[in-house]
Amino acid sequence: MLNKAITDLLTKMADDELILGHRNSEWTGLGPVMEEDIAFSSMAQDKIGHSWALFRILEELPEGRPADLNAFCRPEAAFKCCHLVEYPNSGYDFSLMRHFLFDQAEAVRYESLQESSFEPLQQLSKKVKGELKYHTLHANAWILQLSKAGEESYDRMQTALNEIMALAAGIFEPARDYEQALIDEKVYPGEKELYNRWLDRIYPVLVKASLNLPDLNAIAPAYGGRTGQHTPYLGPLLKEMGEVFNLDTAANW
Amino acid sequence: MSLDPRVNRLKLGDPNAVIKVEEGENWNVYEVFHQEKRGAHHEHVGCVHAPDPQLALIFAKEQFARRKKCVNLWVVKSADILAFDVEDEDMFANNLEKTYRDASGFKVMEKINKFKQSSKGTTDVK
Fold it and tell me: Which of A128, A184, A227, B44 is the most buried (most CB within 10 A)?
């Protein structure tokens, strides 16, 4: 039971990192300025690195599959990523706001895992600490910068926040069958607790940026991803991402 | 741990940290100085474009410290650097003739080698 619960947790975390890492990498060469292009691409690479580390932990578990097969050869319905990471990059305002909301959530999650009873996650959380510190510093700076850069810029950031909030709340979709087991075994504090910690983290930044947090009671979190129900955007992404690997899945690289 | 108190340090993770754009200010060029290890000199490695010092530091981190070892960075607005005019290069020209000012003028290597060869030197000095 606990093995299944941990597999579920690792898979959703790995899938979020893999899919958003891929999405963010689509900005490479197209970023607004060269410096930002390099920083954003580099952070996208970090995400792929996090997903690789998580898939490696999965590989070591009973019935674990090789990391590459897990990343490139699973059917869409077996993916457990949230809807937030699947959406295409409509503009840099959207991507930056998603980067801010996701990476703050990621930071909160990994911080909580420093206390995890599951050793491999505890070790990984220490390893990624410095990277996430940089990611959230970068995200906070941009949110503050753009929300204070004139009316049009402010409006675009507020619009992006309004559009993304329900998707971002979907990060914290509880694992129906496993949530309580993971909490009881002190693997992690549970999605509800992480959601509250995340709100505490993003709120002061939004206040500083004079952005209004949408009414949380009025939004319906975009759930479904964790149980394999995805947006129409995931399928094409998976096809493109696995295109080369699937030419010959047994090839040595 | 010795930390230079004259240097301002960016406090990470502080949501109250002020990041502001001056009215009408455009992006500036910032010179980047890279420190390889604690206590080492910061060496000039290049520049970044940024709207303010904080973002310059953020860009500099990925720009200049993602491959090579690094423990800290400085950014300085290029406009804050004072330099001699290119035309005044001649001020430095006659230094070449003043070899007595070179450290090489001091014949210490002989003494060092002599010390190394002595029995005391071979045990204590590599």
Answer: A128
Mind listing the pLDDT tens digit for each residue in A97-130?
A: 999 999 999 999 999 999 999 999 999 999 999 9
- Following DSSP, what letter does each residue of A117-160 receive, concatenated? SSHHHHHHHHHSHHHHHHHHHHHHHHHHHHHTS-HHHHHHHHHH
Full residue range of the structural domain in which residue B107 is found: 86-124
CB A231 within 8 A of CB A87: yes
Asked if residue B98 is part of any domain, the answer here is yes
More reliable by pLDDT, A45 or B15? A45
Nearest CA among A203, A206, A174, A202 for reference residue A190: A174
Q: Residue B35: inside a domain, yes or no?
A: no
Residue B119 within a domain: yes
pLDDT tens digit string along A196-231?
999 999 999 999 999 999 999 999 999 999 999 999
Residue B111 placed within a domain = yes
Structure ipTM? 0.79
Of A42, A133, A148, the CB nearest to B66: A42
Three state DSSP letters for A28-49: CCCCCCHHHHHHHHHHHHHHHH
**CATH node for A2-247:** 1.20.1260.10
- Judged by CB atoms closer than 8 Å, whether chains meet at A39 and B50 is answered as no
Q: Per-domain residue ranges for chain A?
A: 2-247
CA distance A13 to A27: 22
Segment A10-24 mean pLDDT: 98
